[in-house]
Write a structure and sequence with these properties.
The protein is mainly beta. Helix 1 packs across helix 2. A hairpin with a 4-residue loop joins strand 3 and strand 4. Helix content is about 15%, strand content about 35%.
């Protein structure tokens, strides 16, 4: 059997690319920050009309040691919508402004 010629030019594949994390942080700070978060909790919250929303709590995996700050918690619905913590068991969906109360 004769090998057939490919209709396109072959490209040479080189070894693994070098990865510079600091360059990535400069180009995509919001993505890098989000990737450094760890899921630490899950709970349900209810709105005024009785609908239940699954909420995920994330915390920074490496808090900023230089400033001496505590890790920052962020909240998102399971589908990815951002949630603002108003204090205690009260939350608010950022996109729609719907108020939620933690139930579990």
């Amino acid at each position: 059997m004769q090998p057939t010629e490919l209709p396109y030019e072959r490209t040479r594949i080189h070894g693994p690319q070098c990865y510079d994390a600091s360059e990535n942080e400069q180009l995509f700070p919001e993505v890098t920050k989000q990737m450094a978060s760890v899921l630490v909790g899950q709970f349900h919250a209810r709105d005024a009309e009785g609908r239940i929303y699954p909420v995920h709590e994330f915390r920074e995996s490496q808090p900023d040691q230089a400033d001496g700050k505590e890790p920052v918690s962020t909240y998102r619905l399971a589908i990815g919508d951002r949630v603002n913590h108003l204090g205690g068991d009260e939350f608010e969906l950022l996109q729609s402004g719907i108020k939620l109360t933690r139930v579990s």
